[in-house]
Design goal:
about 350 residues; alpha/beta; about 5% strand
Length: about 350
């Protein structure tokens, strides 16, 4: 090589990067309050034990006692973005145990520092330490309902009897959302129906000893329906077999009959439901029980409607839904005539 070539020109000797100048690493550790404290993922525990420093701004964070019990020292501190970057200098790793809000002030500050381009930023990693299971948001609903029951002047005075009408209204609004095919409305109305369940369960949790009422909670409600579903689905949870919807219905009716020990197939049918639905339900029970019961030979509009409801049920038509569909068509005709 030519000694006068640029490649041969003497220059400063190249060395490995200075370890003291390494920007380090920030791990933002998030946890779910819907999962029992201390139940963290294995990568989370590894990061916590390997960190040079662990910080948490919330001294009452539910994870702190479990971290300290596991030998992880935690500093209760709320550093600024600049201070946190400084704590990572020299290649150190700092784990920030995020509060329930997710540390938005800190992350926004880090984003602003990175945007300046004048600071060597640490590597930033978001590490979920625990995940919500399906249905976890139901726990939030229970918590919210607990607080409303205690602190809201209206909700704290409600009774089962006073809320009964709302249960009927919400059920009808849910049916309307289904028939209209509105998905957003369906989701909202399902929430309203769910609220009625949680609200009644919260009231029942207090009980009324003076009326001989034993308290029960939303867990008792859920436990009861879980046990019922398992018992009435022996083809899913037991040794029975069912390959058609008809066989499933037979299992359901058979186990239900054993549970209820009813003297009549009409027992358990709520008489307060709409008339067409009531007539169809009675006809369905009679047909399922193989009872050939002739209709009362009485004239009048009520008996004509009864005959139509029985006919609809035998043809697999919901008479209430059919009448509502016809009523909506009639409503549209009225509006068209008006306008």
């Amino acid at each position: 090589m030519n000694a006068n070539s640029p490649a041969a020109t003497p220059g400063p000797e190249r060395t490995a990067p200075d370890a003291a100048a390494a920007p380090g690493r920030i791990i933002l550790l998030t946890t779910s309050h819907r999962v029992a404290p201390g139940l963290l993922s294995w990568p989370a525990w590894q990061a916590l034990h390997a960190a040079d420093r662990v910080l948490c701004a919330d001294g009452a964070h539910p994870q702190l006692p479990y971290l300290r019990e596991a030998g992880v020292p935690v500093d209760e501190a709320s550093p600024t973005a600049q201070e946190l970057v400084g704590a990572c200098s020299g290649g150190r790793t700092v784990v920030v145990v995020a509060t329930g809000e997710g540390e938005p002030v800190l992350t926004d500050g880090l984003a602003r520092l990175a945007g300046t381009g004048r600071i060597a930023m640490p590597e930033l990693e978001l590490l979920p330490a625990s995940y919500d299971l399906p249905g976890a948001r139901l726990l939030d609903l229970v918590q919210v309902m607990d607080r409303i029951r205690v602190e809201c002047p209206w909700s704290s005075r409600q009774t089962h009897e006073g809320l009964a009408k709302y249960g009927i209204e919400e059920a009808y609004e849910l049916v309307e959302a289904i028939e209209e095919g509105d998905r957003d409305e369906l989701r909202e109305e399902l929430g309203d129906v769910l609220l009625q369940v949680v609200f009644h369960a919260r009231i029942a949790e207090e009980g009324r000893p003076e009326d001989g009422e034993e308290p029960f909670s939303i867990d008792d409600v859920a436990g009861g329906i879980v046990a019922k579903l398992i018992h009435r689905h022996p083809h899913v949870f037991g040794d029975a077999t069912a390959t058609t919807p008809e066989e499933v219905k037979e299992h359901w009716l058979r186990t239900k009959a054993v549970e209820k020990q009813r003297a009549s197939v009409t027992e358990g049918i709520p008489l307060g439901q709409p008339g067409l639905a009531l007539a169809a339900k009675l006809a369905s029970r009679a047909r399922t029980a193989n009872l050939d019961i002739p209709l009362p030979p009485v004239e009048g509009i009520g008996y004509e409607l009864l005959a139509l409801a029985v006919r609809a049920e035998s043809e697999g038509v919901d008479p209430e839904a059919a009448l509502r569909a016809a009523a909506r068509a009639y409503r549209d005709a009225i509006r068209q005539a008006e306008g």
